[in-house]
Design a protein that fits this description.
2 domains, 1% strand, two-stranded antiparallel ribbon, single chain, Serine Threonine Protein Phosphatase 5, Tetratricopeptide repeat, mainly alpha
């Protein structure tokens, strides 16, 4: 319920405002929220509940990663869902909860993975990713196959449809010796798939291995591809304990070697195969399990730089989490493996936070400047990182301005929006509050996206709260339209005089 429509519930609203006036203090009704945004936009440390659409140290690293991917033209970040009910509103467009970034991030350039390899939903077990899409691929192949009799097609299709759960309860198919050779081979493929989904990888591998020698082209190629997945899961299982934690030192190296060998075999045998993008994607899993972070980083950089390739396999909704978990949170992490602006930017922002831990040391000015050669292709990004360092680490806001564009910024990407936001933060840090208010007001008037509008509204609202400008928060012409900011003013910022003015405004309806 927006404030301009409050006349519908005028008696309730009037009572609520009266209660606030009588108490003359902030009131917040309802259950305590576990995750709340910081509407002051002044976080210095990591705050997953209060992320901004700008490259910023206090953001979750996955948010910064998604923003960089968007600027590279690879990702599109949809606006977050906001709380519309005035009295329950906690989140507006900005700040937002970092936990929602993954679902909001989509591929701007479609990857080349075959539908069999595309996961059907958010599933943590790799073997279950293709359970439903694999059903469609198999049925389509059987329907058009000329060597499978019509009655046997129905049998195969019905048997595949019975496979409706990815667990260990799927029964094997009884193969009729009277079926045609091709039908028996397709039935064997189903049994190998059932064993795979039942996590019986050794038996599944044996059948898929035999099927790589049959004449049927689809079976032969798909079986070769499935050997990649069976050996991957076999190797991965050797490093997982009873609680689901992965210990890379425990991974069976022979199985891992077989897994990587099957990828090479598939790509060499089917250089233009239907699963080449997916097979190439499994290389990243192999590099991670092998603790070869250098190769993992190089492969991701190659993928980012080659989105038109037949091998392009990145999912923008998953990549930030993959990078965070397998690179920056890995015990195998080494800074020397990062030689690209993309990875270095993520790393630098993580290491400009105000961590309150004993052993944490932020990146130094000399360490940052030593990376200059790696940013030859993106000098503006590097200057922005230097401005951030001066602002966050060295507390030199005036000096930070020297590394930001002098002319008006167009805000056509997230780096430019970051520069714009930092400039406003610097004005506030320097105590130029009137200039800062005018700055945010002008930017809000020019906002072209919901993220820009949300960011500038939130930044401006701080000044309007201080001025007790109640008219900026109510009515159809209100500058501040996000319900959570309106609620914050009424319940936490408005003084008695402002509340009385709001009551008089209500009486007009």
């Amino acid at each position: 319920m927006k404030l301009q429509n409050i006349s519908i519930l005028k008696p309730i609203f009037y009572t609520f405002i009266t209660a606030i006036s009588i108490q003359a203090q902030s009131i917040y009704a309802g259950a305590e929220n576990i995750c709340e945004p910081n509407l002051h936009l002044d976080d210095r440390d990591l705050n997953g509940c209060s992320n901004l659409p700008v490259l910023y140290p206090s953001n979750d690293s996955q948010t910064n990663t998604a923003l960089l991917l968007s600027d590279l033209g690879l990702a599109e970040i949809e606006p977050m869902q906001i709380d519309q009910n005035l009295w329950d509103a906690t989140f507006g467009y900005v700040p937002f909860d970092a936990a929602n970034v993954s679902l909001a991030t989509k591929n701007k350039i479609q990857n080349q993975r075959n539908e069999l390899a595309v996961k059907d939903e958010i599933i943590f077990d790799e073997r279950c990713y293709s359970f439903n899409s694999g059903n469609n691929a198999f049925i389509d192949q059987v329907k058009t196959h000329k060597l499978i009799p019509a009655n046997e097609k129905l049998v195969l299709i019905n048997e595949r449809k019975k496979m409706n759960q990815c667990d260990n309860k799927i029964a094997l198919i009884s193969i009729d010796p009277n079926w045609s050779t091709t039908t028996r081979q397709y039935a064997s493929y189903l049994n190998a798939s059932i064993l795979f989904y039942n996590a019986n990888y050794s038996s599944s591998t044996k059948i898929f291995t035999v099927l790589t020698s049959v004449e049927d082209a689809w079976l032969k190629e798909t079986a070769q591809y499935m050997l990649i997945r069976t050996t991957l899961n076999s190797a991965y299982a050797t490093g997982v304990d009873q609680y689901g934690d992965v210990y890379l030192d425990n991974i069976n190296q022979n199985l891992l070697k077989q897994f990587l060998g099957h990828i090479t075999n598939y790509l060499n045998t089917y250089p233009n195969g239907r699963y080449v993008a997916s097979a190439r994607g499994f290389l990243r899993r192999g590099f991670w399990l092998s603790k070869r972070q250098d190769l993992l980083v190089n492969e991701i950089v190659w993928q980012i730089q080659n989105p038109k390739s037949k091998f392009y396999n990145l999912d923008m909704g998953q990549l930030p989490a993959e990078i965070d978990r397998r690179i920056f949170s890995s015990n195998s992490f080494e800074l020397k493996n990062l030689k690209d602006p993309f990875f270095l930017t993520i790393y630098n922002l993580m290491n400009m936070r105000d961590y309150k831990t004993e052993h944490y040391q932020p990146i130094t000015w000399s360490q940052l400047n030593a990376q200059k050669d790696f940013f030859k292709t993106q000098p503006e990004l590097f200057n922005y990182l230097r401005a951030i360092h001066l602002f966050f680490i060295q507390n030199k806001p005036q000096d930070a301005l020297n590394y930001l564009p002098k002319s008006n910024i167009k805000n056509t990407n997230y780096l430019q929006l970051s520069q714009t936001f930092l400039k406003g933060q610097i004005l506030e840090k320097l105590g130029q509050n009137q200039t800062a208010e005018e700055y945010w007001t002008n930017l809000l008037a020019q906002a072209r996206t919901l993220y820009q509008k949300g960011l500038f509204e939130t930044a401006l609202s701080k000044h309007l709260n201080i001025k007790q400008d109640y008219s900026a928060f109510i009515g159809k012409q209100a500058k501040i339209s996000q319900p959570n900011l309106q609620k914050q003013f009424i319940t936490q910022q408005a003084n008695i005089d402002s509340l009385d003015k709001i009551k008089r405004w209500i009486r007009k309806f």
